[in-house]
Amino acid sequence: MTSVNVAVIGLGNMGKHHVRNYHNIKHAHLVAVCDLQQSIVDEFSEKYHCKGYTDLEAMLENETIDAVTLTVPTSLHYKIAKSIISKGISILIEKPICDDINQAQELIDLSEKNNCTLMIGHIERFNPVVKKLKDIIDNGEIGKVTSLISRRVGAFPAQIKDANVIIDLAVHDIDIFSYLLDKQPDNIYGNAGRALIDGREDYAEILLTYGDQNGLMQVNWITPIRIRSLAITGTKGYAELNYMTQELKLFESNYHEDHDNFGDYIIKFGNPVERHIPIEKKEPLFEELSHFIDCIMTKQKPLISGEVGLQALKTALKVMTVMNMSSKA
């Protein structure tokens, strides 16, 4: 296989960027786009010189397609993905994999049965600043991680029609915390509420524990400015990460053991050594889609497999269960 014939289903906020990136990926051949709105289909098919459809089944019947990206509302993931995978077509599903654990497992089993690639779009793993931070942690440069604190906040996204802030936003940090620590949480605490939106949670503060390590995340759709940040404290230092600017600062602890005037043991801190870690900035989505295409061509399992997506979904749903129990207490 010298190239992969791809199609994008859903041309909303994320779908349009998938189309743009596939158009620029060397071994990806964008053959078709699909959306319910004819005007959008016409716009993208003309701009990127591909076929355009408003009927999914017609697209699958008329075009030779090796892989698709699915960027539709979460509630539609299972039904459409099942149809795609049943035809032996590889698929990248924008996070989360779907909104039901049993259905997610069914998609995983079906992809294995049909020998096609299933990848979930947890895009932050492909952010070069996250990759660099992972290397720093694994190399022991900040010692043992004791806590992670993330903020993923901003204004309400009008394109999100069916998911709450936990499924849509917190699932990113749930996945990143597990990725950086190489483990899953053992306890969940927190609170969530509905400040501006009826029927769906639009803010939450969540605490996940991983043995003696803690992960605290704030997510909401009510903050007037967009923030995507992560701070990590370790026994040898502290790191600050900005997902949007792809900046990473590292503060190396400077301390020594001593005794005070009474002979009691103390730790004295000096000024930390601050380092701005150089990052080769890249578009995470381009990296993600390139990885997807490579996995199809080489038959390798993707970094964000269906199983990884399922684990993030399980934790997100547990968070929601804990929140509901807390609100009823």
Q: What's this model, at a glance?
A:
The protein is of the alpha/beta class. It is built from nine helices and 16 strands.
Please give a handful of descriptors for the protein shown.
single chain; 329 residues; alpha/beta; Rossmann fold; Dihydrodipicolinate Reductase, domain 2; 2 domains; eight-stranded mixed sheet; six-stranded parallel sheet; 9 helices; 16 strands; globular
Topology of this structure?
Elements: E1 4-9, H1 15-24, E2 28-34, H2 38-47, E3 51-53, H3 56-62, E4 67-70, H4 77-86, E5 90-94, H5 101-113, E6 118-121, H6 128-138, E7 145-155, H7 165-181, E8 187-193, E9 203-210, E10 213-220, E11 222-234, E12 237-242, E13 247-252, E14 255-259, E15 265-269, E16 273-277, H8 284-298, H9 306-328
Parallel strand pairs: 1-2, 1-4, 2-3, 4-5, 5-6, 7-10
Antiparallel strand pairs: 7-11, 8-9, 9-10, 11-12, 12-13, 13-16, 14-15
Helix pairs in contact: 1-8, 4-5, 5-9, 7-9
